[in-house]
Design a protein that fits this description.
This protein has 3 helices and 6 strands; from the N terminus they run E-E-H-H-E-E-E-E-H. It has helices spanning 33-48, 53-60, 131-138, and strands at 2-4, 12-17, 63-73, 82-93, 96-105, 108-120.
């Protein structure tokens, strides 16, 4: 059973640039690198909420692993493109986080990802989502520098 996030639509946005190392010989981003971009976006979303992966592992013994990921590649990014990795929590299960991630160039979605992240212990067995993290992810005020309003007021560029 999963719990819907209390602030649906709240999105963390991480700006980034495509570097030479991200591309193939034609200057187009190699398809597997979008998975790296998405990982960075998830990591920075957690960090912005005060939950660095290293701290969670130290304090709770909980690690995060991707259990499932599907990617819809819609367009190619190229060398020097300015992109954003937009991450939105869709649902929180007992031991999982369901996320929607969009990698965008301007307003165009170039890759859409559906990701299921599982919480595990050092032994590889499932663990519950930490209660403090669950509370942060379900609170409308969880995004730093975000005004929690029901009217849809503009939030910070990092969280919308």
């Amino acid at each position: 059973m999963s719990e819907q996030v209390a602030a649906p639509g709240m999105t963390h946005s991480m700006p980034m640039r495509v570097y030479y190392e991200d591309t193939d010989a034609a200057g187009i981003v190699y398809y597997a690198n979008y998975l790296k971009f998405a990982e960075r976006g998830r990591t920075e979303m957690m960090r912005s909420l005060g939950f660095a992966h290293s701290r969670i592992a130290e304090e709770t013994g909980i690690l995060f692993t991707v259990r499932r990921c599907s990617a819809d590649y819609r367009a190619a990014a190229r060398l020097d493109d300015a992109l954003s990795v937009d991450t939105r929590i869709i649902a929180i299960g007992g031991a999982t986080l369901s996320l929607d991630q969009q990698i965008r160039r301007d307003e165009e979605t170039i890759v859409a990802l559906d990701v299921l992240v599982a919480c595990i212990g050092h032994d590889g067995r499932p663990r519950r989502v930490p209660s403090a993290l669950r509370a942060a992810l379900t609170s409308p005020a969880s995004c730093p520098r975000t005004r929690a309003t029901r009217s849809g007021a503009r939030r910070s560029p990092r969280c919308r």
